[in-house]
Every structure is written in structure tokens, then in C-alpha cells.
Amino acid sequence: MIAGASHIVTWPRVSSAIAKCDALEDVVTAYDDVGTEVLDVLSERIVRYRFDDQTIVYCNRAWALANGGEPDDYVGRSLYTLLTPLEREGLVQQLSRLGPETPFLKDHMTRTGADRWTEWTDLYLPGPDGPHVLAVGRDVTERCDAELRLAASEDRYRGLALRDPLTGLANRRLLDELLTAAVARTSRSGTCLVVSYFDLDGFKAINDDYGHAVGDAVLVEVGRRLRATVRDADIIARMGGDEFVVVQECPPDQTDSLAARLEHLMSEAITLDSATIECQVSIGSVVAGPEHDVAALLAAADAAMYIVKRERRADRARSARPSEQRPSSRSEPENSLTGYASRGVPGVLSWARPAAQPCINPLPV
Questions:
Q1: Per-residue pLDDT tens for 28-69?
Q2: How far apart are CA 103 and CA 124, in angstroms?
Q3: pLDDT reported for residue 106
Q4: Among 108, 123, 228, 287, which residue is least crowded by beta carbons within 10 Å?
Q5: Are 117 and 139 contacting, i.e. CB atoms less than 8 angstroms apart?
Q6: Would you state the torsion angle of the CA atoms of residues 287, 293, 295, 296, taken in this order, to the nearest 10 degrees?
Q7: Max CA separation in the chain (angstroms)
Q8: Is the pLDDT of residue 347 over 80?
């Protein structure tokens, strides 16, 4: 316990006050009552200087050692001349905010060397010979490092939460965010948004015949080919299993070519160490209108893809029965999106629907 003329200051009180930075007057009291004795043994850096010209009137040992000397080396010198250009800029900003109306400032951070951080708390002290500033600096490097690690961890886990862990493509959650933004953007710009939904034909047989490790390798290769096929600005997502979505923006006269380019995605077999895999893709594509939301677009593209898949199955079945007479024309299969049908080029959808009912904009074939 340290006794002054009109105030009693205990060591725990001073130490706790500095640690909490909520009772800096205790530090002032200790300084006024007993001079430098209590402050010289603290690990916190403490310096007192004149407000007008920044002349140092006191610094404790911790502050002096941090600056490469002893307290007597600095008393009477200008604090400004001891600082780096960045620290000088911070000092000027602090002094511009301190004053009788704002006598207490906290959380000013400075960097010492390459890897140390100090948090400063400043107190404006009016006096008969002009105002002083009492500054207390605490090393907060460990706290800053922990905060940086936490931020990096949060970014990493956010990335994991928004990315497919196998292919690294966007997952459904991230697709919803990106597609929502793309719909709004294209409605303002007048460009078109082509949403393509596709899956691999016969992927279950690949897993059954070669094992899931080969199946996973196929999915990774599909993701790689998608990245190589579309532009960096386009959206690629894996919906799960062997289903993928590609979202592309383009002028109105290029919608058909964007959808058609995906048709060649699996034109070459996938060569792995243990197998050579050949498979096709079924693709359904729609053009978004400004009134359509994400759920409607994905549902329409998904329905279009399954129409293509059913037609291919029907074609294969007819090919397996050559003796049967094929009908000259066939009715187009429909799904819950009544009247939507695929025509002609596999994977590029043209929509037919009564004009009285609104629909997703058609892709020409």
C-alpha cells in the first residue's frame, strides 16, 4: 500500500486500473502521490509529456527500455522526434482529439517492430504550467494475434460452409447468394442470365463398377473442365451428387451459344490412373427474366434437364428395338412446368407454353 497526503493507492488497485483501462486516475494519483516508484516497476509503458510541445516530463522504465534507453535519456526531449513517421501521424491524430471536452481516449494502436502491437490509453491533464498528456501503453500482441487467428479461422470456416469440399466449387448456399445478386444485376443492365442445370448420365454405374474413389475423381475432373469452359466471372456450383449448375451472363443474342458450349464438356473421355471413363451430360438451360427468383430459375432448369434425360432414355430404348416402327413424330414429355418441352439439339432447351401463361424466357435452337 502506498499512502499519499489525501489518498491511499494500493498496488493491486493501480495494476488493475491499468489492466482494465477504466480508472486511469489511479495511475495519475500514484504518480502525484509517490512519484515514479510504483510506475517504474510496471510492465506497461507510461510516458507523460506536455500537450503543447510534446516535451517528455516523465517516462517509466518500461517505456524507456522499449525505446532503447533509460528514463533519464528521454526526459526533456520531444516525444515527436522519437517516433516513426507512422507513429507521428498517430500522435497528431490523438492530440487533435484530446482536450478538456474529450479528456480520455482509448484503443489507439501502434506497431513496434515487425511483430509487436501496443494499445495506448491517453489522459488529458490540465495543470498550472499548461496541460499534460499521460499515456499508458499495454502490449497486446498476443490478443491481436489471437484475433487474427480467429478472423482467419472464421474466413476458413465460411469458405468451407460455402464451398463443395470435393470440387471446391460453390455449394447450394453460395449459389443462392450469387444467383440472387446476378438476377438483380442483369435486370438493371439489360443483359441476359442463362442458368444451366446438368448431371452426368450413368454416374451411378461408374460408382458401382469402379468404386466411389473413381467416381469422386470424375466429379473433380468435371469441375476442372467447367472452370476451363466458362469465364471466370461465371458461376459454377455443385448441387450434390453428380448435379451441377452454371450461371452465365451475356448479351441477348448470345444465349444459345452459351448453353451450347457446355454440350461439349464430356466429348472427351476422362482418363484416370485406374480407368478411362466415358459419359455424357444431360443439360437443361433457361433464360432468366427480371421477375424470376432463384428458386423458380433452378426448378425450371432442373425440370428442363430431366426432360432431356428422359428423351435420351427414350431414344436409347427405341434404338434397342429396331424392328419396331418408330412414330413419325412424338409427343413431348411434360413435367410440373406444364407445356415446357425440349426440342432438337440435346441439352439446349426451347420452351413451348401457351402465351396466356407467363414462363421463363425461351432459348432458341
A1: 555 554 456 677 777 888 999 999 999 999 999 988 998 889
A2: 5
A3: 75
A4: 228
A5: yes
A6: -50
A7: 116
A8: no
Whether the Cβ atoms of residue 323 and residue 174 lie closer than 8 Å to each other: no
Phi then psi dihedrals of residue 46, to 5 deg: -130, 130
Neighbours of 165 (CB within 10 A): 8
In this structure, which amino acid lies at residue 171? N
Query: Alpha carbon 159 to chain centroid distance?
Result: 7
Length, in residues, of the chain: 365
Exposed / middle / buried, residue 350 (Cβ in 10 Å: 0-12, 13-18, 19+): middle
d(CA 139, CA 43): 9
DSSP category for residue 226: H
Q: Give the CATH H-level superfamily of domain 166-319.
A: Reverse transcriptase/Diguanylate cyclase domain (3.30.70.270)
**231/218 Cα distance (integer angstroms):** 21
CATH node for 2-144? 3.30.450.20
Of 270, 280, 274, the C-alpha closest to 211 is 274
> Quick one: pLDDT band at residue 23, thresholds 50, 70, 90?
very low
Q: How many CB atoms lie within 10 A of CB 235?
A: 21
Cβ atoms of 298 and 195 within 8 Å: the answer is: yes
- Please provide the distance, in angstroms rounded to a whole number, between the alpha carbons at the two ends of the chain: 90
Note the pLDDT tens digit of each residue in 183-207.
Answer: 888 888 888 899 999 999 889 999 9
Q: What is the DSSP string of 87-124?
A: HHHHHHHHHHH-SSSS-EEEEEEEEETTTEEEEEEEEE
- Please state, in angstroms and as integers, the Cα–Cα distance from residue 200 to each residue in 70, 162, 277, 326, following that order: 74, 23, 12, 27
**Helices 11-20 and 25-34, axial angle in degrees (round to 10):** 140
Q: What is the distance between the alpha carbons of residues 142 and 321, in angstroms, rounded to a whole number?
A: 75
- Render 134-149 in DSSP notation, one character per residue: EEEEEE-HHHHHHHHH
Q: Which amino acid is at 176?
A: D
